[in-house]
Amino acid sequence: MSTAVETLPLPPSYSDPLIGVGNDVDNLDVSASASELPAYTPGSRVSATPRRTQARQPEPKEFSHELKNRNGTPFAILTIIAEGAYSKQIPTFLEGIPVEGRVCLILEKPDAIQSVVVSVTGKVIAGSDEVDQLTFVDVRSTLWSLSDGEPRNSSSDDGTSTLAVTSPNFSGKLQGSYTWPFSIDIPKEVVRPSGKVFNPPETFNERYVRVSVCYEVSVRFTRGKLRPNHKIKATIGYMPVTAPPPLPDLRRLAYEQRTALLGPTIDPEGWKATESVQFEGTIFNNRTVQVGCTLFLSKPLSYTRGSLIPFCLRLESGDEQALDVLSTPKAIVLRLKRRVSHKFAYEGSKISASKDTTDHSQPAVWWPSVEGSETEDGTQLRFVNGELHLRPGVKPSCAMAHFRIEYFLVLFPFESPDFVSTETAPLIEHAIDIVTSYAPGPRPIKFAPPGYKPDTGIIAGPNRSNLVDLGFL
């Protein structure tokens, strides 16, 4: 393989989320800037560890939401504190990072508030009806209640209210300024009533998809019967931290030394072969040919967003001209398919219909391989190498009860003016996972030919909402 190589940038360090990230979770770029490795030359020894951008100290950013009285003066403030590098529009939290903030009360007159409760919730929302909404995270923390006694006025201390033993003079009403800090962990696992365990999915909200995943922080001030309660709500973002398994040994070595990947005939342990398919077509409008096709996917079948997916295609036929036509890079059409599915019914229901939204990426890029051209029985072979580049904003694979985001690599019928296929349905479809961080070790390298501009944004499929049976129940 003589094409130029390019090292992919590093993802953010999740212990130092400031490296190279500049947007909210909906547009979060998990690729961080890093210095390029020195150019590889034969005989030279290249360090396997890229130079890291110097880490900066975390810079928290505050987001405040207020309740105002009739005069327009704030009397309750919910402040959420998040990492500024991830949180441009809304506070955004990575898996394992607690949701932190504070609640302030500024009461000019005595107020019979009985409790101050902060909640963090996560929901899958498919409609306005309760049956179409699934709450999978609901963590509450009582910052203060009447039974705790009189809280210390924040103006008399360091700005943080602490609970005091009930004073004989405490009337049960609050007056003055009070501040309560909070820190709430979003659980890494959620156990549904059915006993199944799920990981909280990433925030998801797209215009043309009817289902969304939303996280919210709220504080509720209760006043008892016949008295109005008040509530402040704020949307937050959440991103899980998922990584693929370690790379196979020869793949790791190729990335470390910046050399071409070994193909499936030399490194069979590094590739997953899909089931071979046979298809027919007419070449040059004068004869029918039969072609065998096998797609090889790089192991493991879990790929980091902002990274790439390497693959190799093997074509075999007794007609050499047919192979020459079909191994042309522009004749091969492989796309990433995303399927977002959801169905909300009472657990135990036998209903299995699901609303699907299916989208496809731009096609992959291909270039000729130098692997074998003939089998022992004389059958002609062609190998073609390929890559599909993933945008940093691609949502990771996830599942939460009957909500799914799934990905598949799909090989469509070949397209060439010299070949007419009898097939109209996809030839090969294979499930893969998209994750949010890299595996330990070297980063993947791009081998696409010079001038290739990756554009794997998700585009609308022909049927955005088909009623199908996915068998999730």
TrEMBL record:
Stretches with biased composition (Basic and acidic residues): 58-67
Ranges of residues in domain Arrestin-like N-terminal: 88-225
Domain of life: Eukaryota
Transmembrane segments: none
Stretches the record annotates as Disordered: 34-67
Annotated Polar residues bias: 44-56
Pfam families given in the database record: Arrestin_N
Protein name as it appears in the record: Arrestin-like N-terminal domain-containing protein
Source organism of the structure: Galerina marginata (strain CBS 339.88)
